[in-house]
Amino acid sequence: MKVLVTGGAGFIGSHTCVELLENGHEVIIFDNFYNSSPDVIERIEKITGKSVKLVEGDMCDAETVDKLFKDNEFECIIHFAGLKAVGESVAKPVFYYDTNIGGTLNIIKAMQKYDVKKLVFSSSATVYGMNNVAPYNETMPTSATNPYGWTKLMIEQILTDTAKAQGDWHIALLRYFNPIGAHSSGLIGEKPNGIPNNLMPYITQVAAGKLECLNVFGDDYDTHDGTGVRDYIHVCDLAIGHMKALNHIDEIDGARQFNLGTGVGYSVLDIVKAFEKANDITINYKIAPRRPGDIATCFADTKRAYDELGFKTERSLEDMCQSSWNFVKNLYK
After folding, report:
1. Does residue 240 belong to any structural domain of this protein?
2. Domain tally for the chain?
3. Minimal CA–CA distance to 232: which of 164, 172, 317, 307?
4. Do the domain assignments include residue 283?
């Protein structure tokens, strides 16, 4: 299958491209490298031994998107492209709404024009908001607490409405929980620009001596050790989830939501201790005040993804911690 991967040079996108290529699909990456690097393309090719076509561009440029579709006969779209920092979204809401929603509308319009009917969308567990009780399942009410979350929820609604209107579209809305880890080669992994927003890259940069200390936001939640509990999934398992969605895309009538997680919650301090044990290294951390909008516990009900896509995770928390550190060590050799 000829697959367009928007944002394919990013953390999750790059691992998914590896999975697609290793399963015989033709991949075209569309990326503007806002939060990624062009050298990722070479790394994907080195891992897979296969060439990848890159089209550098911005999905907010409608003419660029139209030409991308005109020049290629895509069979399916996997849509990762978008801004993803919660704090930045609060500071720059218009930028986030304009980019994530406006850019996605350009993709949808091009799909309509060029008769592409299959799409896998990179959504997020943030759409479950603050009022549901874990484990989260796909039938629960949705809401958001920040502009980033609202963009994911709005795009889900836009895609659902579009699928209903078109009648013959097939859309998988994949709600990720917390991706961590890296490819076993150590060639690709999470490499955010600037100060990391997510836990694992922050831990690895402390381990590498690039940051002095990890801030643990809150130790008074109603959890076993007082720190927030989340569902951490290995990025390579997450990539397999996209492959499973692609394999079953024709069976999805309209748009359907799927949780991609492990179904197990670990606290922030669980992750710190697991990282220390897996890599024989000490992480300097301190307790900081809670962040507004953070919830105590978040983990997935994974039944639908298993029953309908045949997806289940395989990699352990130790794998996540070891592969994350292996990638970062390679970066700073």
Report:
1. yes
2. 1
3. 317
4. no
**Catalytic residue (one of 128, 136, 148, 232):** 148
Q: Cα(17)–Cα(86) distance, rounded to whole angstroms?
A: 25
Is residue 86 situated within a structural domain?
A: yes
pTM over 0.90: yes
- Host domain of residue 97: 2-181+232-262+300-313
β-partners of residue 6 are 30, 79
Q: Which of 326, 216, 222, 231 is nearest to 272 (CA)?
A: 216
Rounded to whole angstroms, what are the CA distances from 112 to 118, 166, 190?
11, 9, 33
Which of 226, 239, 234, 256 is CA-nearest to residue 327?
Answer: 234
Tokens standing for residue 282? 């000490």
Listed residue (172, 148, 146, 150) closest to 159, CA to CA? 172
* Tens of pLDDT, residues 79-135: 999 999 888 999 999 999 999 999 999 999 999 999 999 999 999 999 999 999 999
Query: Does residue 241 lie in a domain region?
Result: yes
Tokens of 245: 């969605």
Residue 11: pLDDT band with limits 50, 70, 90: very high
Of 7, 50, 332, 10, residue with least CA distance to 193? 10
176 assigned to active site? no
